[in-house]
Amino acid sequence: MRVHFISQWNSHVHSAAICVLAIACALFAGCSEHTEADASPYPIQMAGIVAARGPLYWVDDRRVIFVGYKGREKPSLSADRETISATLYLWDTESNEVNVYADEYKGGLCVFEGEVRYLARMERFEENGESMLRRTFIAGPVDAPAPEEIVTYFFHERQRIADEEAGYRPRSKVPRIGQCGAFMVRPESAQDEYVVALKEGFGYLVLGSVATGFDDKAPESYLVNGDARTPISFLGRISISGGMRYLPWANAYFTHARSYPLGEKWEASGCLEAYQFDMRGLLETTCIPSGPYSLNGGKLEVEKVKAGYIISSAQLTHEGMGSSGLYYIVRGEVLQIDNGYVYEINVSPSGCQVAFTTVKRRNAYTVPIRMDSQLAMIDLCIQGRIRNGRIENAEGVGR
Question: Which of 253, 358, 375 is nearest to 314 (CA)?
Fold first, then answer.
């Protein structure tokens, strides 16, 4: 399969002075745009700020919330971690402005349909001779979240005993996939089945029974929504926690075949089965072709976008970054959009924009440190050029 490399980093028509300027931008984020934007029909827009190797989410089709480092907003050659702290930022991709969203952040960032949830503080204290843990979450609409405190026993075993004494059953609640702390009460009829809880209105998936085990064979699967129980014919085991996504623009869910190691089986078969299903259980099956990303050996993510698929690859080899990059599969072609070490990606609600973190430095024997990661985005539904950090002269493609 031919792979077209269209990254803005490989144009041969710019002068040596422009190349030096591009290197300076990459190291010190002194520029808010790629100097070679005209080389790509899908220009990459840089936020000009360091992003952590943690979750990032589109709030809407304009804003991205992500984890960064207070005091180290620019790329640095230093791996000093004593003077930095995790901070949440909000990037407005239309104005290209980045502002602090929350100073206190301990982890667990999640955004779903405009609602945010994350852990802001943790405090250990003593009460009646017991070690307790108070966790403060911030949850609610992104523009007006509120604190939410959860107090538990500090030691997991002590909490388990307390749950048993209170009559709580560990399997009684099923987390809704991707939905920020939301749960579904497990139906009595599904106590011995693998259940995947979807958003309200979609019901839940039954992926075989606990008794059958969890292998690569296709289980007897159903979508249960109200009184309807619709068979779904997946060709094999599917990816759940790391690969199932709700697609707002299609009002459907996307997932793909589960196999480990993913790359080896993908390369051997030449095809990764991808699935899209709606609340009626209508299933669309497609094949994502193998490519240079298949034999990854590192972190690999597959996401559905409006007109095709996006694949991110973060791979390290003795020769460098190997097949690392951002790939766009559209109309039977594989386009390499970015050739950096792409670690995190997220697709906007419209299915058009993709936010991602990328590391440009290539060193065969040094793992890219977290202070190298820069936040970027690309709009796959328009073609144009980047000027002053914004896309202009744009032509709509597939909106």
Answer: 358
